[in-house]
Amino acid sequence: MNIHRIDADVSVLADQTEIPGLGHLPINAFVLHADQPVVVDTGLSLPDRDFLGTLSSVLDPADVRWIWLTHPDRDHTGGLYDLLDAAPQAKVITTFLGVGILSTERPLPMDRVHLLNPGQSLDVGDRTLRAFRPPLFDSPSTTGFLDSRTGACFSSDCFGAVMETADDAAVPDLAAAPQSDIRDRQLLWAGVDSPWVHNVDPNRFADMVSELRAVDPSWILSSHLPPSQATGMLFDNVLGAPESEPFVGADQAALEAMLAEFEPAA
Q1: Judging by DSSP bridges, how do beta strands 91-94 and 113-115 pair with one another?
Q2: What's the CA angle centered on 45, arms 43 and 222, to 5 degrees?
């Protein structure tokens, strides 16, 4: 994982994973250096990742007061239980459905849970975090938030993009990556992650995007995109999601063809 500091208030714990045939997907967690420090998601659930070790280079895990779980997919929960053990004061911010989904694998201790719904807010000492449901999401428990002090928008999977190379996925600012195909890559990810968007009326979807856009966030901090201050561009790009080409994944014939490429020659 790479660590980027956006400003005095936000650290990005950046990782990535390759999606064969598509590119490289950024996997970001964040630390909000509030009076009551907030960790946003906890990285990939892979055995070679050490989320707690990476976090320890940013702040003492024992100081963490809140773990904002944008949703309980496995690329967001890798270090969750280790962090709960290392941060005895911390509570997990999630929804009723989020708790239920987690309970199918490893239940959260309910005295460590803080339920927060879209539209509600949380005071973390020197700022307020206002929860919202992003325009694009892949889980019914997804909840992003707006930071009242920095104006940053923590958008979970929304605005993500599968980048062409590992280097592109790892840049500390989206402006440092090639710009020519960002829109296409965002729309590809929208179809992969939120396939329901192709069944949505484009005007109703535009209303959802406009509601968030009206807040005029200073940064878009997506789980699956390098951090970006080009917020207008990102909003414009996702407006095309309902009418974009639906994603169709590889079928068995394609899988067999891929596997054949790796078979040793006779």
Answers
A1: parallel
A2: 30
CB 71 within 8 A of CB 87: no
Percent of the chain with pLDDT over 70: 99
Question: Domains of the chain, with CATH numbers?
Answer: 2-261 (3.60.15.10)
List the beta bridge partners of residue 147: 129
Mean pLDDT within 105-121? 95
Cα–Cα distance between 11 and 137 in angstroms, integer?
23
HSE value, Cβ hemisphere, 13 Å, CA-based, for 206 = 7
Closest by CA to 218, choosing from 16, 9, 3, is 9
**Are the C-beta atoms of 7 and 150 separated by less than 8 Å?**
yes
Q: State both tokens at 85.
A: 């053990």
Instruction: Report the predicted TM-score, pTM, of the whole model to 2 decimal places.
Output: 0.94
CB 34 within 8 A of CB 9: yes
Q: 220 has which bridge partners?
A: 153, 228
43-102: per-residue pLDDT in tens?
998 888 899 999 999 999 999 999 999 999 999 999 999 999 999 999 999 999 999 999
Give every CB contact of residue 52 below 8 A, 6+ residues apart in sequence.
61, 79, 82, 83, 86
CA dist 163 and 146 (Å) reads 25
pLDDT at site 43 = 93
Q: How far apart are CA 246 and CA 235, in angstroms?
A: 19
> Measuring CA to CA, which residue among 186, 1, 178 is closest to residue 75?
1
Q: What is the rounded CA–CA span in Å between residue 153 and residue 78?
A: 22
Average per-residue pLDDT for the chain: 94
